[in-house]
Design a protein that fits this description.
There is one protein chain. The chain is 5% helix and 3% strand. It has two helices and two strands, in the order αβαβ. It is elongated and about 65 Å long. The N and C termini lie far apart (69 Å).
């Protein structure tokens, strides 16, 4: 039997919601920072705008929950399955998402500053407008992800799979670490590569029209930018 709103309010005061059945509960905007939510059933719950800063989400059931704009900063979500969720505008600053499944997830305008996304699956994810500043995406899988208009300042994509990603109109400066990343068939149309060091990465494909580059752009060994498409050179 689901608890009443009054019972829920009393339970929230204890800061321990572990093992509780909160399926379908309205927790929109509620501050659950530091709460114990281990094994809590939050399926179908409305957590939009809720604060789950450093909350314990071990074995928590979030199936069908509304997580738009949720604050999950500094939370341990390593290995978590969030595939297909709507997490647009969510805050993952400093969050451990290593090995997490975020494939086909709406992460538009989400914040990942200093987040650990190493070995995470972001295939097909919508990351338009997301902030990946200082994030660790070592060996992350982003095949087919939409990265338009993202901030990648000081992000690490070491050995990341960036096959067929959409990076159009993204600014990639010298702070972005792309060594041994696979950018084959990536859409780089309109991308600013003026200060990028692309030595050691794999780059193929024809979606390179209107790329912005200059004499400081360091291409992969053997790569001919003029043969790969139409480029706009800025000296």
């Amino acid at each position: 039997m689901k608890m009443s709103q009054e019972e829920l309010n009393q339970l929230i005061k204890t800061r321990d919601l572990s093992n509780a059945d909160l399926s379908g509960a309205n927790l929109s905007g509620v501050d659950l920072s530091g709460f114990n939510l281990g094994r809590t059933n939050l399926s179908g719950a409305d957590l939009s705008g809720a604060k789950l800063f450093i909350a314990n989400l071990s074995n928590t059931n979030l199936n069908g929950a509304n997580l738009r704009g949720v604050d999950l900063s500094k939370t341990d979500l390593s290995g978590f399955n969030l595939s297909g969720f709507n997490l647009s505008g969510a805050d993952f600053a400093g969050t451990n998402l290593s090995g997490a499944d975020l494939s086909n997830t709406d992460l538009s305008n989400a914040r990942f500053c200093r987040a650990d996304l190493s070995n995470a699956n972001l295939g097909g994810a919508d990351l338009r407008g997301a902030d990946l500043g200082n994030a660790n995406l070592t060996e992350a899988k982003l095949r087919g992800a939409d990265l338009r208009d993202t901030n990648m300042h000081q992000a690490s994509f070491f050995k990341a799979e960036l096959i067929s990603v959409n990076l159009s109109n993204v600014i990639l400066d010298e702070s972005v670490f792309l060594f041994e990343a696979n950018l084959s068939d990536a859409n780089l149309s309109g991308t600013d590569l003026s200060l990028v060091d692309m030595h050691g990465l794999y780059l193929t494909g024809k979606n390179l029209r209107r790329v912005i580059y200059n004499n400081d752009t360091k291409w992969p060994d053997g790569f001919d930018p003029e043969a790969a498409g139409r480029y706009q050179s800025h000296e």
